[in-house]
Amino acid sequence: MTYTAWIILTAALVGLSCGVIGVFLILRKTAMMADAISHTVLLGIVIAYIVTREVSGTAMLIGGILAGVFTAFLVQWLHSLRVQHDAAMGIVFTTLFAIGVILIATSVGNAHLDVQHALMGEITFIPFHMITLPFIGAIPEATALLLLVLAVILFFIIAFYKEWKITSFDPALAASLGIPVILMHYLFMGLVSVTTVASFDAVGAIMVVAMLITPAASAYLWTDKLSFMLVLSGSFGVVSAVTGYYIAAWIDTSISGSMAFATGLVFMISFIFSPKHGLIAKRVRPAETM
Amino acid sequence: MLSILLNSNTGWVLLSTMTLGIAAGTIGCMAYWKRQNLMSDALSHAALPGVVIAFLLIGEKNLLILIIGAAISALIGAFLIQWITTASRISEDSAMGMVLAIFYGFGIMLLTIANRSAGGNQSGLDGFIYGQAAAMVRTDVITMLVLALIVVFIVFIGFKEWKLYLFDGQFAKGIGLSLKGMNTLYTAVLVTTIVIGIQAVGVILMAAMLIIPAVSARYWTQSFKIMILLSAIFGGLAGAAGTLISALGSGLPTGPFIVVVGAGFFVVSLIFGKEKGILIHYLQFKLHQRNQQSNTQTLKQEG
To answer: What global pTM score does this model have?
Structure first.
């Protein structure tokens, strides 16, 4: 495959995985948790690097997952000590992120990890790190990781589809049915962390939040059906990723920034034209929406 | 340590981060009671495109102009969050997350263009992302000081009105206070505090300056006035200490150190705080338990 094709494929995979997992972020009303996790994943990656002294996919994945779940745990713990939920989030992620930046600046400041890269992503470098897999052949490491993560996400979503649905829409009912709500919460936070780590190389810590939240929020304006929302959000993610790539190529700028910008365009279109919840629909038939 | 202080530029920078900490600590208390802690995070990220556009327009790094750009962009972000939340079924935190990430992404697009086209001046712009107080010059410091003092002054002179606005909106309305006007003023001081802090602390960590001192102060008092005072002190100390630590090494970012010092205050408050701190809570619980035990024992003896 050509250099450009790999980049577009990787971007599309980021859009797809983030779009699918983001649906539950919106439905569970924990969208800002994605912001918190995406920041603290940096600390996980830095610590993984300090421990193993190499930039390896597996170590980073584990570090990132641990950091993400740890964040969710800390926020929950502070909240149980009666700190306002969003304040707890704000304290935890800024502090852990700050520690991450300090560690980078003091002990690992070299070409492999730098803050700029972590914040903006560098999708153009991805095709330079190829690995060879059986059956598939040569594939960029980040792309392979994304494929793996996508498979894991889809597995968990399909395997526990009913449980996700109930815990997201009605946690009280879920608890009364004997579904382990707390466990599902941490499993979900784990999945968000995995997705974030895998997307990190491509889009960086902050733009991944756009990829996670915006396609799902846009899809939420089009449909009330969970299965359809998942498909729609995944497609919006892919469309934004590919559009973002071409915008970046057109005006020669940051690909990850353009991808985030493109999700904004998708949301804007949904916000205006959605048949049920769009601005125009509301203006045309205000009586029905009342 | 002393030689760092005597280095005149560091002294100025120290003064400005301390004042910034005081202003942010003050405004943070209001955000805390409005339950809008993460709003500051969204708005500070949303300021990035404004900074870069202002830079592209004037072609040089003039802090005041960049601050104005940042403020306009953050206000547009605030307006969009409000609009999306009221006009659709998207919840407020989703709207904040979207505005935060999309504005930031747009800012990075523009920053890449600015870095490519504008020549040697751009290195200072990158500092805006995660804060580089050491890069500030005398005029930057004065701009920051003046704006921070204005913010603190506005809170100070309208203290009674702010209190009513935050805690008893209905009553405030009853005595003829315009809630809409107060809301606008609140957003204005919030955005001002955020944008003047970006240069020193960076867009990503600016939220911590508003959230952490306020929450820490909450552990020590029930009075709003004392909470604001304490929060301002925590903020000021964190700002000063963080700046000093980052001045010890070359090229160390300031923002992260300020945040970590602030987090230290938070942990101490969380454990030892007079109001609902963990230790007090535990002691009260033990005392309660012992009282109950002795009560049941007396009952047994009597029975």
So the answer is: 0.89
